[in-house]
Amino acid sequence: MASLTGSACLENYRIQGLPSSAFYISEFISDLEEQALLDKIPKPRWKQLSKRRLQTWPSELAKNTLLDTSLPKWLIEPIITRIHSIPLTASDPQKHMFSDSPHGSPNHVLINEYLPGQGIMPHKDGAAYHPVVCTVSLGSSICLDVYGTKEEGTTETEPKWKILQEPRSLLITTGEIYTDHLHGIAEVEEEINLGPSTVSNWKLLRSTDEIIEGRFKRLPRTSLTYRDVIKVSKLGAKFGIFGSR
Ligand SMILES: O=C(O)CCC(=O)C(=O)O
């Protein structure tokens, strides 16, 4: 992790100007780690959706509940270990992003693959999860759009903020930005209108070299989103909430 030094804490990576709180670490994993992760994603496991491909690890939720099984080792090392190693603040080096979550660690990963032109509709992640999402990006940069709220409480139709996620980066969203704001990825082949005034994490980017006249063309991008599912059941199979297996 070239940009995360031994003494670093998450506060150094806070994205300013967004609803609280979002953090962006541009070089969270190395090139080799990125390639190893892409190689390990099992091809037969993809579920084709209309606008992207999806894998759910260790399994899909049923009634917002996760069957108690572990994540495979390749989804734990190096990512979860490294998330645990980043202190929230310099004053309390033991406390990390999942210290206060029900299981003290992510127990669930969604893997999404977007080809150029694909995206995900604006949505909230909902109540099944503790309100922390850690997203690792692989393969290509992409912009996550975050939507504002009008005075009467409805969501604005155009995104208010844009977070540029580079390959090998980690984005953490939590708090108000998780609970109160919709997020989505536009179905476009090219990101446009990018600059210091439109990209909230501009100052935290590893490089802006690929952005020419405020634009870049997307390549296939894979994301790993890590969350802690609040309800975990050891007895799900017995009571049939996960169907027959
Ligand atoms: O792929 C991403 O970065 C976003 C995925 C997402 O919005 C979600 O899993 O809820």
Describe the protein in words.
By secondary structure, the protein is an alpha+beta fold. It has a single domain (10-233), classed as Jelly Rolls, CATH 2.60.120. The chain is built from five helices and 15 strands. It has helices at 31-40, 73-76, 79-85, 176-180, 236-239; strands at 22-25, 47-48, 53-57, 65-67, 108-114, 120-123, 132-138, 142-146, 161-165, 170-174, 183-185, 190-191, 216-217, 221-227, 231-233. The strands form four sheets. It has a seven-stranded antiparallel sheet. Strands 6-11-8-9 form a four-stranded antiparallel sheet, with no helix packed on it. Strand 2 (47-48) and strand 3 (53-57) form a beta hairpin. The longest helix has 10 residues, at 31-40. Bound molecules: 2-oxoglutaric acid (AKG). 2-oxoglutaric acid (AKG) is lined by residues 110, 112, 120, 125, 135, 144, 183, 223, 225. 2-oxoglutaric acid is lined by residues 110, 112, 120, 125, 135, 144, 183, 223, 225. This is Fe2OG dioxygenase domain-containing protein.
